[in-house]
Amino acid sequence: MILATVEGGRALIYSRSGVAIRVRWALLGWLFLGGIMAAQSPQPDDQPAATGGALAGPAVAILNDAASIYRGASNLQLKGMKLYERHDQFVDNVTRTSFTLILTSDNRFRQETKSQSGTVLQGCDGQRHWTYFATTSKYSTVPATPDPIFLFNSRIDLRFLTDRLLSAQFLRQEDLQTDSGNHRCDVIQAHYERAHPSGNVEYGDVLFWIDRNSHWVWKTRTETETKVGDSGAKRAAFETTEYTDVQMNLDLPADTFAFIPPPGAIDQATPTPAPRQALLGRPAPDFKLRSLDGEEVQLSDLKGKVVLLDFWASWSEASRAAISTLNSLIKKFRKQDVVIMAINQYEDEQTVRSFVGKNRYGYPTVLCPRGNPAIDGYSVRTLPTLVLIDKSGLVSDYRVGYASETEETLRAALVRVSGPDYVSPQLAEAAPAGVYSVGGDVTEPVPIYKPDPPYSKEALKAKYQGTVVLWITVDVSGAVADCRVVKPLGHGLDENAVETVKTWKFNPAMRLGTPVPVRVMVQVTFRLGKWAASSP
Predict the structure, then answer these.
(1) Topology, domain 429-536
(2) Within the chain, which residue ranges are assigned CATH 3.30.2420.10?
(3) Rounded CA gap, 313 and 315, in Å?
(4) In this predicted structure, what is the pLDDT of residue 92?
(5) Are the CB atoms for 22 and 71 separated by under 8 Å?
(6) Cβ of 161: how many Cβ atoms within 10 Å?
């Protein structure tokens, strides 16, 4: 095959050849590449041919040659670095993830990634797909199934670079330096059809740096732009993958793709005490960390105040979404001895300082570098995690993630904990077998029917008021299956609270999309002339 292009006004003529062998493998991990958004794409020079509508031209031929190399190998080992860039009104930084991927043509692969969030191992032995999170010592396994091309609407498979290809253009030749040496590359810009485009995400073109001699892809760059809210603002993200080593047809050990859980590793399918259950009602783990102002901050020094801890990172979208809510809350509650403290996890000081400066935090930020065990007792697995600590130093609430209703929920919790009628939660007991606790991948049950309990004649006569605290179990149908008083009031109010709470109805708690029974604490407050009942 003879290919011709023009670069810098000079004609370039060179030969290409390749054999198209179509093989489907298991999940290709880091070979799946994100789509790129180009604000103004150059006019493509490779268009559908006159017969059959198939694409033709030098850029398409280069993509075909590269794809045939990856399809034709019995196995591959790829090493490299993925750079993820975010540029918007909230953050302007780059995160790096190194990876090693080994894959074969018979549905087996093994992948290791290392980033600021920790080390993750993934693999498929032909029967199971497994994932192991080294930071939390947790793993999961699911039956292995072959994955289709274009598993995600924004992803491109290097084995099939011309599938769903709408147009392609040869941009230039460029020398690319990697750990394996210097590579003379053709830079190709490709535009793809998206199977399920999102209304909020715009995908554009993909840039490939393809070695002219080996036909290996040494670099890719992708971009997306996501619409933020109704303001019309857009959030840009770039992924650049740089391959440092490519090897094919290796003699792999028989156990390359096997997974044996390390000692002490926890199967995520096994119900385990969630952080909320482990911490609720217990003394908040003390810590001493340095603030951005250079001061040492110790949690125990804040005893006597209500403290809301916000575990966050600048790369977490949900963490960024919580900023305005927390700023609003500290303005409202500062005079009520409420302290909000942001605890940044594992990012360098320069990144944190720049982010906080741009976003005008109204509350202090402390730093927890990677390897510092100071906050291990909080078992933070998802960002943001919000921990509410009462004036006596006991954990009153533990919430994971951020959603539209989080501000209202936190506001109600702060009113409750900082108010005069607040009752500290009792030490949590172990939930019955088969019953979950809220937290991690278990969501809260949402009340949909909450009638008011009546005031007893005895309490009215005695002009008695206060709060009844109860543990309840909400079953998979949303009904209250068990109800037990842990903080009684007497005067007939405990019985009234129990009988009424038993009639409450909930949307059940969910775990991985399936309803599960959970145990939660609720408080029913009786007040003369007015009372209120609330779930956690």
Answers:
(1) TolA/TonB C-terminal domain (3.30.2420)
(2) 429-536
(3) 6
(4) 65
(5) yes
(6) 28
* DSSP per-residue string spanning 163-213: TTEEEEEEEEEEEEEETTEEEEEEEEEEEE--SS--SSEEE-EEEEEEETT
* Rounded Cα–Cα distance for residues 517 and 439 (Å): 13
* CATH 2.50.20.10 placement within the chain: 21-266
Report phi then psi at 58, rounded to 5. Answer: -65, -40
Residue 232, class by beta-carbon neighbours within 10 Å (0-12 exposed, 13-18 middle, 19+ buried)? exposed
The pLDDT confidence band at residue 339, using thresholds 50, 70 and 90, is very high
User: Which residues partner with 209 through β-bridges?
Assistant: 187, 219
Task: Kindly report whether the global pTM for this prediction surpasses the value 0.70.
Answer: no
Give the SS3 label for residue 384.
coil
Q: 491 and 458 in contact (C-beta within 8 Å)?
A: yes
Reading the block at residue 89, the tokens are: 């009104």
CA distance 306 to 395: 10
468, 524 Cβ separation under 8 angstroms:
yes
- Average model confidence (pLDDT) for the chain? 79
Domain 21-266 CATH (choose: 1.25.40.10, 2.50.20.10, 3.10.20.580, 2.60.40.10)? 2.50.20.10
CA-based nearest residue to 481, from 519, 509, 453: 519
Spatial distance between the Cα atoms of 523 and 529, rounded to a whole number of angstroms? 18
pLDDT of residue 4: 38
pLDDT tens digits, 46-91: 655 444 456 778 999 999 999 999 989 999 899 999 888 876 665 6
271-422 CATH pick, 2.60.40.2470, 3.40.30.10, 3.20.20.20, 3.40.50.300? 3.40.30.10
The pLDDT value recorded for residue 418 is: 87
More confident residue, 307 or 382: 307
CATH 3.40.30.10 residue ranges in the chain?
Answer: 271-422
| 3-state SS, residue 96 | strand
Please state the rounded mean pLDDT for residues 217-241.
77
CA distance linking residue 25 with residue 280, whole number of Å: 46
CA pair distance 381, 376, nearest whole angstrom: 10
Given a contact cutoff of 8 angstroms between Cβ atoms, the answer to whether 276 and 438 are in contact is yes
What's the rounded Cα separation, in Å, for the pair 498 and 517? 19
